[in-house]
Amino acid sequence: xxxxxxxxxxxxxxxxxxxxxxxxxxxxxxxxxxxxxxxxxxxxxxxxxxxxxxxxxxxxxxxxxxxxxxxxxxxxxxxxxxxxxxxxxxxxxxxxxxxxxxxxxxxxxxxxxxxxxxxxxxxxxxxxxxxxxxxxxxxxxxxxxxx
Length: 147
Hints:
Blueprint: H1 9-22, H2 26-33, H3 37-45, H4 52-61, E1 64-70, E2 73-77, H5 80-94, H6 98-105, H7 109-116, H8 124-133, E3 137-142
C-alpha cells in the first residue's frame, strides 16, 4: 500500500491552495461551506482531519469535488453513502469478504460493516486505508465546468 495515499493532508492541500488563490479567509469557507472555521484551521495545519461530508462541502465551496478513482473509472463523490457503495462494489468485484477487506485495511470487520451500512462515518485516515486496500484513490479536483 502506497503510504502517500494514506496521508489526509494531500486532500487538504488543494483546498488550501484554492482558498489562498481566491484570497478567501477561513471564515469565508465557514460562511460558504457551512463548516466550522476551526475545522478548516486544524485541517490546513495538519492537527486534525474533517469527516468526509464536511470535506466535500468545503471542496464544493471552492468549485472542487472529491473524486474516487477505482478500477471501473473516476467517480465524483457527493457524500459518504455514495463512497461506501463504491467501495462495496470494489470489494464485491474482487470477491472479497468484509473480513478480508478489513484485514487488508487494518480495521475490524465490525467497523467495516458499520461503514458499509452507512451507520457511521470513518475518520479520514481510516477511510483512506479502506480505499487504498481496494486500490481506490481519493483526490480533490477542480470541478469541470460545462463548455
